[in-house]
Amino acid sequence: MVEAGVASADQVEFTECWKVTWKTPYIMRLALSAGLGGLLFGYDTGVISGALLYIKDDFDGVEKSTILQEVIVSMCVGGAIIGAAIGGYLSDRFGRKKTILASDIVFIIGAIIMAVAPAPWVIVFGRVLVGLGVGMTSMNSPLYISETSPAKIRGALVSINGFLLTFGQFLSYLINLAFTKAPGTWRWMLGVCALPALLQFMLMLWLPESPRWLYREESVEVEKEMEASTGKDTISKLKGALNDPVVRRGLYAGITVQVAQQFAGINTVMYYAPTIVQFAGFASKSVALALSLVTTGLNAFGSILSMLCVDRFGRRRMMIISMIGIISFLVALAIVFQQASTHAPTLSPVDSQSFGRNFTCQSYLSKVENTKWTCMDCLKAKCAFCANRANEVSSLNLPVTWLNSNAKYDS
User: Fold this and answer.
1) What is residue 394's predicted lDDT score, i.e. its pLDDT?
2) CATH no. of 9-218+264-341
3) Which of 231, 271, 296, 345 is a plausible cystine mate for 169, CB 3.0–4.6 Å?
4) In angstroms, rounded to a whole number, what is the distance separating the alpha carbons of residues 186 and 179?
5) Where would you find the membrane-spanning parts of this chain (predicted)?
6) What is this structure's pTM?
């Protein structure tokens, strides 16, 4: 409800949602079916972090180029930007249901392309398609849920999309762990994400269109009033909306929240969590993935807390509290990274040269294909050797120094 231009959430216990959906399970079916779009988003966010560890093993170009690694990771977000931009138009033009179905098809095609990719550029193309599907469904799934939910429990039901997003991230790490020993590893990891998209497609086929969208399409008078006040084309509608002070204020608030959410940095942590864990000293891919489950698990737990509290304490209060927590922990994370970098052991070129180049690392000398020696190999060797910053990624000419057994790799 809105009083004096300020939104006030209904003080409804989360148990009300449980009571209503228990009596009318069809409501929960609607929310869960559409909410699978959040699961797709979350799964794709988390799965690439583990898959990337194994993609680097199959493609030397990816292993040697951090730029190519970043392109593979970020192209999904790039595709999502485009998908979200066209998703709004498609949603208004063809309906929420059809747009979600279309996004599922695009997502499935992208997942299959990634799974069979013979080269890194094919993975990038598949990531773009998956991003398109993610972008389309990320704005249509919560919209569909909100327009088909009872007002009293709308906040809790829309939160299901957010919960499934974080659960999808947690699930992706579990699936990554399951395929660490399977032939094809990363191909299975990326290909499995087609299954929830297929499930959503099948479920949505049997669900109705959003009643609000149908009402707008069937009511000629309402449509004429909207066109008279906002115009027929998109530009005119946008100008008309911006001229309305209430709409403009809501738009500014919504954009600010979305920008703040994306700039929080959680996606970076999710995309590179296993890599960060590896450089913390846990070189094993499976161990890195297992430890990364802590991050995704806490993320999912936070979504559950949100579902329990959103209708009781209100959207604004929950948002302020969460943003304070995000800022505090990001500052703590930055301090930890900075301290780790500052207190890394000092490397002495003089000491390194006294041992001779690459003649004191037995693990390196015994490696059959030592031209492919990587940072992870150094961590696995645990011989306390480090590369000088002046000669980063120089496999055959690593100036090394003997440090104590607690030394860290610093490149």
Assistant:
1) 38
2) 1.20.1250.20
3) 296
4) 8
5) 30-55, 67-87, 99-117, 123-145, 157-179, 185-207, 251-274, 286-308, 320-337
6) 0.68
